[in-house]
């Protein structure tokens, strides 16, 4: 009878041990359970979107005569191209923190292993069937852009096309432009004897406008613009103070940070609101599910002594990890929901 009682106590003790939640921090030398589910806690990745505008200018064939013949001052005198910074934006996204990967033993007497993660393996819920949609960064696709600049000479009159010198050709082209302006005035003031209905008049005026614009471009030149977007990602685990992440050149646009042809774009990430870590580090204590206690960080982007970005983000990597008691998952009804930062949203 005594032996039977001892055996019963041993079995009860073993069952009690097996019923406990077993969570192991996955790192070098860690002893992992035979069967387990793993998850990550997230960290914040800062995504910097830098947009630059490329300006392409091409001088018109008659640029040298624009002032004398048409009194035009604001013209493109020479062919050139250059870049300007259009905007810099900062966004946050959540990626797995490789230093915070955990293995949860599959034990039918605990709910801890009933984990749902997103597509990256970041924990979302425990013992809850619902899961939230992941936030996916949409990176703009680079599409081919036609930057070729051409001029329309088909609108030049016969006199201009037959001219033997560049100057004469320019004079005839200028005369055409002035005639178009006179025709527009006649139409608008009603001096033209032909009576046009509203729609017909509009079509004629539109055609005159287009013809004048294309002929005038032979004097003023043409300009085209397009936007280039560069994406940079950083996920610092320590403070960053004026670190060069890229450079900007007026002739080349955004270049690598080691290419000294450009002026530096500086990034600073300064932790703020750092929580006090008062979690016990007793290694004999049975840890449950780990979660994040977050901090915040101020993110600044500086160029030419001008602040282009000044934002504050929640950044778990500047906080610390805590854990839920292992024994709470021995109850079959225990359920936990996590935020996108890996903090506790709700315990049911």
Strand and helix map with partners:
Elements: H1 2-19, E1 23-25, E2 36-58, H2 66-70, E3 80-105, E4 115-117, E5 123-126, H3 158-162, H4 166-189, H5 198-220, E6 222-234, E7 240-249, E8 253-255, E9 263-272, E10 287-303, E11 306-325, E12 336-338, E13 344-347
Antiparallel strand pairs: 1-3, 2-3, 2-6, 4-5, 5-12, 7-8, 7-9, 9-10, 10-11, 12-13
Helix pairs in contact: 4-5
Structural description of this entry:
This protein has 348 residues and is α+β, with helices and mostly antiparallel strands. The protein has a domain at 2-51 and 86-145 and 225-347. Helices cover 22% and strands 40% of the residues. The strands form 3 sheets. It has a 5-stranded antiparallel β-sheet, with no helix packed on it. The protein has a 4-stranded antiparallel β-sheet with strand order 1-3-2-6. The longest helix is centred in the middle third of the chain and has 24 residues, at 166-189. The two termini are 44 Å apart. The model is unreliable at 1-19 (pLDDT under 50).
């Amino acid at each position: 009878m005594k032996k039977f009682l001892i055996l019963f106590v041993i079995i009860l003790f073993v069952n009690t041990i097996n019923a406990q939640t077993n969570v192991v921090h996955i790192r070098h030398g860690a002893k992992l359970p035979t069967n387990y589910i793993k998850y990550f806690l997230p960290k914040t990745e800062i995504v910097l979107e830098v947009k630059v505008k490329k300006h392409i200018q091409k001088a018109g064939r008659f640029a040298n005569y624009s002032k004398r013949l048409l009194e035009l001052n604001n013209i493109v005198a020479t062919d050139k191209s250059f870049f300007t910074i259009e905007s810099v934006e900062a966004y946050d996204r959540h990626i797995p923190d490789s230093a915070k990967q955990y293995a949860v033993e599959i034990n039918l007497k605990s709910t801890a292993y009933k984990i749902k993660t997103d597509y990256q393996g970041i924990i979302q819920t425990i013992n809850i069937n619902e899961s939230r949609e992941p936030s996916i960064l949409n990176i703009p696709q680079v599409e081919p852009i036609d930057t070729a600049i051409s001029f329309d000479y088909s609108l030049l009159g016969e006199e201009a096309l037959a001219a033997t010198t560049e100057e004469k050709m320019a004079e005839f082209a200028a005369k055409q432009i002035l005639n178009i302006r006179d025709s527009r005035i006649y139409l608008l003031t009603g001096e033209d004897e032909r009576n046009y209905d509203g729609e017909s008049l509009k079509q004629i005026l539109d055609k005159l406008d287009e013809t004048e614009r294309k002929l005038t471009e032979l004097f003023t030149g043409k300009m085209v613009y397009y936007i280039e977007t560069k994406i940079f990602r950083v996920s610092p685990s320590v403070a960053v103070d004026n670190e060069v992440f890229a450079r900007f050149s007026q002739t080349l646009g955004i270049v690598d940070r080691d290419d000294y042809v450009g002026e530096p774009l500086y990034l600073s990430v300064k932790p703020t609101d750092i929580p006090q870590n008062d979690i016990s580090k007793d290694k004999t204590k049975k840890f449950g599910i780990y979660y994040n206690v977050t901090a915040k960080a101020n993110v600044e982007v500086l160029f030419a002594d001008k602040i282009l970005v000044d934002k504050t983000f929640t950044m778990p990597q500047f906080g610390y990890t805590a854990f839920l008691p292992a024994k709470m998952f021995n109850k079959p009804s225990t359920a936990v929901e996590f935020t996108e930062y890996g903090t506790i949203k709700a315990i049911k």
